[in-house]
Amino acid sequence: MFNQVTIQADQRGLLFHKGSYVKKLNPGTYRYLAWSQNTVVVLNITKPFVVEGKELQLFFQDEDLVRELDIVRVQDHEYVLHYEDGQFVQLLKPGTYAYWNILKKHTFLHADIRNPELPVGVDRSILPKLAVHVQSCEIASYESGFLFYDHVLQRELTPGRYYFWKGPVSVMVKSVDGRQQQMDLVGQEIMTEDKVTLRLNFVCQYKIVNPLRSLEMKSFEEQIHIQLQLMLREYVGTLKLDDLLKRKEDVASFVLSRLREKGEEFGVQFLSAGVKDVILPGEMKEILNTVLLAEKKAQANLITRREETASTRSLLNTAKLMDENQTLFRLKELEFLEKMCEKIGSISVTGGGDLLERLSSLIGEKRAASK
Q1: Higher-scoring residue by pLDDT: 105, 300
Q2: Does residue 93 sit in the same domain as residue 72?
Q3: Is 22 helix (H, G, I), strand (E, B) or coil?
Q4: Structure confidence at residue 85 (pLDDT)
Q5: What is the pLDDT of residue 359?
Q6: Which of 47, 92, 100, 279 sits a CA distance of 20 to 30 A from 294?
Q7: How many domains does the chain have?
Q8: Helices (H), the chain
């Protein structure tokens, strides 16, 4: 009695005697006595070399078998990218792997994950297949980036996208915005020298010129915010309310000059600053409105008196000229009669005499009567 085994061209056989590996079998037909305790495991050479229940190391003593295998050992600190005929197949974790090299060419790219940044040789098109094992970060064109391994600074990153292995080393990337930024102080309560409590809305624009320095400071923006508060209190506390309202621009100039003194300490270039609003208490608003109204009324009265004085002075000058010049006096009479005649529909005259003299005497009589 014989047991017959046929091995196809895309197969290889492994002969075992009493469970121990003997040799590799090439394509062909093999017969064994039924009681010989020989067994044959048939493997497909298009698939990885795996023998269920057996360690790979048992087969690596067979030089004939090893010549038809590509063997790769992945260390604990490595990932290995497996390619078949130049096409990415899978990522191999620590362990030992073997692949038949008869029909396909296998290549392997070793990556030491103790250095988390992906090797240059990794094609970015395969990264979606590695999403479980890879993390990425992006530095915009207006940003500066800083790379940290286990919280230790490694280097500055230029704008672009970066990829890192998820492994034993903690990777962190911090970015700093290099564009012009604005900080607003809203509703800052400050007391003036004359004990008036008011609220200021203040704004300043700045640009980070030393990104690393800003990262070295804890709560960077909060520290700038506090400096602004202290500088405003320092200056406003020396002014009375009226002076503050008149010299808002001086407040901005003072604060900006003080901020620029600290620019190097913060790694920041302060560009501009200004007071947006001065918000007074309700009672103080009413008082200022009353004062303003009184000032405007006084100005209006002054203008009225000035106009009346000018008008009176003009009449006096006209009268003096008429006394000195009879022709001018006669012209004024004619002008007055012309205006009066414009409002009279008809005039009846009896008796002789000059019409103009009669009208003039009539006016004179009415003036005397009115006196």
Answers
A1: 105
A2: yes
A3: strand
A4: 93
A5: 57
A6: 279
A7: 4
A8: 63-66, 211-216, 220-236, 241-246, 248-261, 263-266, 282-324, 326-341, 355-370
